[in-house]
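Support case: user asked for a sample of complex input and structure output to validate their parser. Sending the pair below.
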Amino acid sequence: MTGKTHIYLTVNGETFDACVEPRMLAADFLRDELGLTGTHVGCEHGVCGTCTITLNGVSARSCLMLAVQLDGMDVQTVEGLGTMRKMHRIQEAFREHHALQCGFCTPGFLMTVHDILNTMPLRDDDEIRDALSGNICRCTGYEHIVKAVRTLVNERDGVQTP
Amino acid sequence: MKPAPFEYVRPETLAEAVTALDHEDAKIIAGGQSLLPMMNFRLAQPERLVDINRIVELGQIEKTESGIRIGALVRHAEAARSDLLADHFPIIREAMPHVAHVAIRNRGTIAGSLCHADPAAEWPLLVTLLEGEIEILGGNGPRKAKPAEFFLAPLVTDIEETELVTGIYLPLPDAPCGMAFDEVAQRAGDFAVVAAGALVCVKGGQFAEVRLGLGGVFDTSVRGSALEKALTGKPATTEAIDSALPLAVEDLEPNDDLHASAAYRLSLVPVLARRVLTRAMKVAAT
């Protein structure tokens, strides 16, 4: 079928059914069809990480997936994380630590952090840097991003800091 | 930066997949972490895309009497998490963090890495080191290939367009042994400049079996056969390893590329070989 394909999926808790051309990328579907422009598109070949979303709870590059492959999946985008009035704790930590400058890479970082906080020990800053290595910030604000994640890891692990 | 149009087929069974592949210019998509960048750049423009993600039986890790079978669709992250794999082949859990980045490890599959056949990738090296077999299915039924038969050149494998890899089989080593993996890459998650893995069995203070696998230094992953042969039967000591290290670079022909010169790659081989052999020997001795 080169023609359009029917897909059913959940995005940020809301169910959708849609008809998509097989070649449509998942990132373009989220942005152009659902209007969820929080998912940014940078390099379109899996290098920059700004299009990171979560699929069934784990992170994935939405530029390296087809919209048809979202069929049956539980998708979360940055819009599902928090709202302007009620930010997610990860977003709060980014704000507290000035972990964004132009903000283009931020949605990808937030979704990556959402995943790694659940799946990785992140025992020290080296491990945090390794875990964030798939996301590029061209403002090069990495130091502050690492600090934000360190705070979140400490909160997760119940580590008291001065 | 968008894929050219293609026909999309999503088989639910292996039989349907084989039928779907019997078509001019059909290509399999599993994790899509190598294929989709190529399609976005239009370096690849398959007429038909066969999505095997719904074939449940390809996603299993199973123990058999003499080894472990890993299904083609097992993701790098799943392989890293598997206690069954870690119990028998701890080197897999050790190597997985070197495979790209978190989000890519969540989607990318073992068979995808093998079929992409990058000479610096971790899975081709692991299968070569662990003397695994690659299980392949086509219209004429199943067949198996050894790594040396399967990997032909950079990005070239012995797989027909109408065939698919269904999994790999890793035989359990005959005796208790130690394993270790290490690599040098420019940044975390980059392809290795050079990668090395070792498997060492020690018996009565001597090397009963020594295997060294290397990636990034030849057209395909290779074994350090000359070093393996020289060390077998020798006392299991760091001195013995050191004296055999010059043999590790024998017959290697790395290329100069953007990431490293051939000379730098060659200089890394004894460094990494020493690290992994020494560590594997220590594990084997305990």
